[in-house]
Design brief:
mainly alpha, 27 helices, 71% helix
Amino acid sequence: MRPKSAASYCQPRTPPPINVLVGVGLVETLVHLLAAHDHPLLQFEAAWTLSIIASGSNDAVMAIMRTEAPLRFIALLSESLHENVRTQSVWALAEYAGHSCECRDYLLENGILPPLLAVLSAPETVSWEMLRTATWAVANLCRGCPKPELETVRAAIPVLADLCTSGDDELIANATWALAYLSDDSADDASGGIHAVLQGDVVNMLSDFLVHPKSTVSTPALKAVGNLLTGSADQTQMVLASGALAGLACLARSPVLNTRKEACWALSNVAAGTAKQLTAVFEVDAVEPLLTIMREDDDAVSNEAAWAIANIVSGGTLDQVEHIMHNGGVPAFARFLDNHKYRVVLMALEAFAKFLEAGITIVSSSDPNWEFSHNPAAALMEAAGAIKLIVQLTTHTDPEVCTAASTVLNGHFPADMTHLLQLQNARSE
């Protein structure tokens, strides 16, 4: 009877004996077998087992990283004549790259990317399994915080762009995740990723993928597009020119909570842009779902929608602010006056100040003898219970919130009314 391979002992069970295999010194033996070029089956079995061990604990992974295994796997990508050996080598390297930034950077420093890109640049010469595994490996090399140095992974962008045209959903998903990682310039030490991706001729495809029928593709596309929209006004305009807004408006109506959240975040970045970009949010009918989310959705999602609408109220025209005000914006923002996040409360107070200013402009243009009671914003705020909530905020524990609430009241409401409401609030406490 043929003896079992070490890999067979690592197949799914509870728990797999990975630490046992590491503890008996098997890693060094397996690494030695990777050099058995005359015995490709042995190489494959060794690579397979090392891949499984790499899915174990941090100690197991580091036991491999301290050996020559990573360097031998990289060499096998170019040297082995057997695709099963090369595919398994890529699988192991993908596991190592995804384990930690330390492992990722070690692989990049030792030249993993050129042979991987060579494989992906000649798709007609390898199997779909090899292409999918190699794309996953590249995605892991682009992933992590801190990000890899852009110059070490920039060469992957045109290859990833080609993979996005493959028609294979798994390839496209991993390639899109890689582009999402590369375009994330949110970290303090990250820069240039947005520019590099936009120059890679992929933005049109990313926008198309927003409405892909499979969430495995639309999810990373949404992340990538959202990251790109955090760039400059000119960079944002490049994304909008690709038609991304229509897809974002569609995803804001998704039944999936996290998808709605990411779509609202992306839309908030657009709404924070130029007047033209803000108007474009109205033109794709994205405002109504944002208002609905503010009023009805989970807090994590409604907060993102609120920032989007707040950006519109802050930078929009009088007609746009009035549209928000008369289409549920006032009761929607009232909900955020009772929020544990001070920044969210301040955002709502600023929105109410803008509503009141817009109300004054509206009523004064038609009635030079207008009075406070004629302000449509004040009437809507009273009906929504917002005025009483703002009065309560004048005694908030955070001084910035207190000041903002007092400014709204003192700047837009009669002193006697404000005083009366404050007295009522004190008695109720």
